[in-house]
Amino acid sequence: MELALMHHFPAHPQRDVRERRLLRGHMQTERLPLFDILIRNISEHGLCASCRDLPPVPGEMAEIQLPDNRTVTATVRWVNEQVFGVAFDTPISLALMLQTLQRLRELAERNASWEVKSKHRVNTNHRNQGILRRV
To answer: Which domain of life, per UniProt (predicted)?
Structure first.
């Protein structure tokens, strides 16, 4: 037991705090034209996303358009089928991005209009309406 206490494990770098969201974005690489991605989580230094079509390749350089309309450059770090992770070349301000998304959502809610119409009523000219049945 004392040997286990004396054994020194190498320190692992702490992972960034990830914001779990489902956000739409766009990505392109030298090999792939612009395609849609679904961002699953994002941090100041990278993101995890998925795509429907051909995924990027680890080590590939990419340009990603974030939901707040910022474009960042990144390197693909890993790929597992259609899911992949990228590391941003320069860190982003996650707080700023989330504030921008909140403002965009509030603006959309203010500009949204709902129109409620009365139920559709069918008028029939049948003399004996008792034989009609509801479907």
So the answer is: Bacteria
Q: What is the pTM of this model?
A: 0.68
Domains of the chain are: 19-104 (2.40.10.220)
Tens digit of each residue's pLDDT, the chain (135 residues): 444 444 444 444 566 778 888 899 999 999 999 999 999 999 999 999 999 989 999 999 999 999 888 999 999 999 999 999 999 999 998 888 888 888 888 888 888 776 666 666 666 665 665 665 555
Whole-number Å distance between alpha carbons of 6 and 18 = 33
String of DSSP letters for the chain: -HHHHHPPPPPPPPPPPPEEEEEEEEEEESSS--EEEEEEEE-SSEEEEE-SS----TT-EEEEE-TTS-EEEEEEEEEETTEEEEEESS---HHHHHHHHHHHHHHHHHH------PPP------S-GGG----
